[in-house]
Amino acid sequence: MTPLTRRRLANFRANRRGYVSLWLFAVLFVGSLMAEFIANDRPIVFSQHGELHFPVWFTYSEAELGGVLEAEAWYRDPFVMELIEADGWAVWPPVRFAHDTIDWGLENVPSPPDGTHLLGTDSGGTDVFAKVLYGFRLSVLFGLSLTIVSSAIGVLVGALQGYFGGLTDLLGQRLVEIWEGLPILFVLIILASLVEPNVFILLAILALFSWMALVGVVRAEFLRARNFEFVRAARALGVSNLVIMRKHVLPNATVAALTYLPFILTGAITILTFLDFLGFGLPYDAPSFGRLLSSAKANLQAPWLGITVFIALAVLLTLLIFIGEAVRDALDPRRAIGPGADVSGGQVQMQAGQ
């Protein structure tokens, strides 16, 4: 690890708000990745006739458990549980409801929080806690995927514009300006309404517009770095443009681009929630914050719906913003350059002996 990297990590840890937010976000995200072990309508593991079964990972038919139906076993059925417990045992998750499990025993829906449903149920009789847990995972994974795809496109476009300059930069800037001038929200709604929504199609549609956030900063870094002496020397030695861009110029642009990633992730989660709220996002049965907001809007007599999803969204977005601010401050050149540091050739180099 270089001295500059150590200094940046120290600067990040010094920002207590961002550092604590990163740990809180990591704990919540890891917990959401284990959602099937926390909230599920299937046992985590059960033993029958001395054999272990793992319904979380594998599907078993009722006939395999000793019943008569060849369909998948429904573990909330008392008959199925009698088959298992007659000669075995089962370990259940703390919450015995998945995000799409309907509690048919409820008299009224949505139902308020109680001992069975910690955060109540929505108008469909499904557990709100399970929906928030699965929705947190879906939102973060979707946001991370969109951030990676859009960042790759934005870095590529900005690198080509900034490195080659001239006509390439001129035409590229005009195209970016035209693309930015489109009414993005209306285009997204139209495209999302023309095709049957799913995760991959929605990801592709949003990636068409979200890449523009990084073009400007990457282009500026490449325009600045292309005239450094070590870049000119590499050209004079016959090094290919691709190698120069990848090894000598891109590292400088990467530092600037990294400061934007947490905010791009925040924007991706927000736009997904907004589209789902309007009904132009993911399928209706997807565990989504937007769907919960829509359900809360339609059931104002059930305040626990709106309060729960508002708190979940507020916590998630606030943590990401605090992390983004800490990353931005840690990568700030004025903070990264300490006493005894020397800036030459556009890169920070520590003096000998530091």
Describe the protein.
The chain is mainly alpha-helical and 354 residues long. It has a 3-stranded antiparallel β-sheet, covered by helices on one side. Strands 4-5 form a two-stranded antiparallel sheet. The protein has 2 domains: 3-33 and 130-336, MetI-like (MetI-like fold); 41-92, no CATH class. The longest helix has 37 residues, at 128-164. It has 15 helices and 5 strands. Helix 1 (3-14) runs antiparallel to helix 14 and helix 2 (16-33) crosses helix 5 (128-164). Residues 338-354 have low confidence and may be disordered.
Walk across the major sheet and give the strand order: 2-1-3
**Class of the largest domain in CATH?**
Mainly Alpha
Please give the domain count.
2
Instruction: Enumerate the spans where pLDDT stays under 50 for 5 or more consecutive residues.
Output: 338-354
Could you give the count of β-strands? 5
Major beta sheet summary: 3 strands, antiparallel
What order do the helices and strands come in, and which of them pair?
Elements: H1 3-14, H2 16-33, H3 35-38, E1 45-48, E2 51-53, H4 78-85, E3 88-91, H5 128-164, H6 166-180, H7 184-194, H8 199-210, H9 212-225, H10 229-236, H11 241-258, H12 261-278, H13 289-298, H14 303-330, H15 333-336, E4 341-344, E5 347-350
Antiparallel strand pairs: 1-2, 1-3, 4-5
